[in-house]
Amino acid sequence: MSVLFAILLFSFLVFIHELGHFMAAKASGVQVNEFAIFMGPAIFKKKVGETTYSLRCIPIGGFCAMEGEDEDTENPRSFQKAAWWKRLIILAAGAAMNFIFGVILFVVVYMPAKQLVVPVITQVEPGCTVVREDGLHLGDEILEVDGEKIYVQADFSMILYYNKGDIHDLVVLRDGKKVYLNDFYMEKHEFSDSDGNTSMRYGFSFGLDNDVTFGDKLAYGWANTVDNIRNVRLSLQMLLTGKIGFSELSGPVGIVDVMSDVADTSPSALDALLNMLWLGGLLAVNLAVMNLLPIPALDGGRIVALLLTTSIEAITKKKINPKYEGYVHAVGMVLLLVLMAATMFKDIIFIFKG
Questions:
Q1: Domain final residue, candidates 211, 244, 261
Q2: N or C, which end of the chain has less CB nearby within 10 Å?
Q3: Per-residue pLDDT for 59 more than 80?
Q4: Same domain, yes or no: 203 and 220
Q5: CB of 280 closer than 8 Å to CB of 106
Q6: What range defines the domain where residue 131 resides?
Q7: 345 and 327 in one domain?
Q8: Is the pLDDT confidence value at 333 over 80?
Q9: Is 48 inside any structural domain?
Q10: What pTM did the predictor assign?
């Protein structure tokens, strides 16, 4: 059931994305020839007005096929004949829908919460060396680590993981004032828990906000959204700098497998549902941001091409044949499909090995 739910959630995110393009195109008066869920040969087709609605057999992806999207046509309601700002809205609408849906999922996840973890130091273990007179203090709220804002308490460990080493720059809120701890040496020590298990830790704990209002939950959902946007940037930086490699990338198969594992290890059915919805919010925000990257075949690449061609046409007064842009996006699509296939193969091998 968890695998089925993960597949349905992933497919719904794609549906939401394509629905954004579809709704924006319809609102802009652009003719939509087909709106499809999934890819491959069609299982079901029904034409309503000028648009064919179809369900296809490969449960991944989908598309919104607009008239004249990658080729010139005389149809006055084609995509290419629409005003440039209308085309911009249509192209950005898919990512916008994913982003909005991601915010909604995060807010829904935290609605049942009666308390939230906040990055405020409330407990210190004997032997902790980072909480001291000239260092961190009890009651400090950690605002930044190495120039990165702390949106949620999990950011503290994540930023330290990204930035290896023991020397860090911290900004904390202490007695209503910002305190800067630059080149602060943070040393881990071996601490034991209540069960006698030992681990390397800094030796302090964050506290709980037990007076959580509806507004706090909305703000926390928004903080998770912004946080995950930042995480995409950090992940891309690590990928480009070689800190992570291809083996650490995951495609749809890997994502579904992770969501299934999270659900199966959750202590209750409600926890499983909330955890999967949180991962759904993470995935929705990631899809929104990744789709806006300036890569051919992605919405971001199309937006960049639109702005470039519009500027060139405004200067030269000459229309650029959209088929040339179509060629670029076609090459980009082939490369993306190859990457997806390689990632999917890697994920399947990893699952079987596991």
A1: 211
A2: C
A3: no
A4: no
A5: no
A6: 115-211
A7: yes
A8: no
A9: no
A10: 0.82
* pLDDT tens for each residue of 124-172: 998 899 999 999 999 999 999 999 999 999 999 989 988 888 999 999 9
Contact 13, 94 (CB under 8 A): no
Give the tens place of pLDDT for each residue, 228-270.
999 888 888 877 777 766 566 555 555 666 666 766 777 787 8
**Rounded mean pLDDT of 173-199?**
89
Q: How large is the average pLDDT for residues 186-199?
A: 84
Q: Which residues contact 143 (CB under 8 A, 6 or more apart)?
A: 149, 150, 171, 172, 173, 178
Residues identified as active-site? 18
What's phi and psi for 238, nearest 5 deg? -65, -35
Evaluate whether 239 touches 330 at the Cβ level (below 8 Å): no
251 and 291 share one domain? yes
Pairing of strands 177-185, 189-192: unpaired
Mark residue 175 as left, alpha or beta (left: phi above 0; alpha: psi -120 to 50; beta: remaining): left
Tokens 């005003």 belong to residue: 83
Asked whether residue 44 is domain-assigned, the answer is no
